[in-house]
Amino acid sequence: MQSGEPMVLALETSFARSRLADAYVLGDGPDDPDDEVIRSVWSWSARPLAKNAAMLRFVRAHNSTRAPRDRVRIYGLEMYAGAGVDPNSLQHRADRQHARRLAALLTTHLTGGGDHRELAGRDGAQFVTLMEVFERHEGTRVLLFEQTGHLDRRVPGSLAAQLVAGGGVPVRTVGAFWSAEDPTVRFPLGDYELLSRWLDAHPERLLPVVEGGGLLDLAGAGTTGSPAVLREAASAFDAVLHVPRTTPIR
Question: What does DSSP assign to residue 248?
Answer without folding.
Answer: B
